[in-house]
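Figure 6 in text form: structure in, sequence out.
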């Protein structure tokens, strides 16, 4: 059975901090794509709501995603320097493909 799985994250910027958050999120995309076990890492912005950002991720394993999320310098730096621009995380889904 394929152990790979997907992550879907939707978050909102604090009002007036949309541009700042967009740039901080864009900064983590390149390094995240190079993380061990990453198969896909994309950042989207909602066209009709500049405060909403969506990540679509595909990882070889849950362990690879966990290592990315808890053990990489670029995520740690974002949490320290950019995390305060996030108003809320609307959803954080960990999913496995069924078909």
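Output sequence:
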């Amino acid at each position: 059975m394929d152990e790979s799985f997907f992550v879907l994250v939707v978050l909102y910027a604090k009002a007036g901090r949309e541009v700042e958050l967009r740039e901080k999120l864009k900064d983590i995309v390149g390094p995240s794509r190079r993380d061990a076990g990453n198969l896909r890492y994309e950042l989207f912005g909602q066209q009709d709501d500049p405060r909403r950002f969506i990540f679509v991720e595909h990882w070889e394993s849950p362990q690879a995603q966990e290592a990315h999320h808890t053990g990489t310098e670029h995520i740690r730096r974002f949490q320290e320097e950019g995390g305060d621009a996030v108003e809320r995380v609307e959803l954080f889904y960990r999913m496995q493909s069924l078909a």
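Caption detail: The mean pLDDT is 94.
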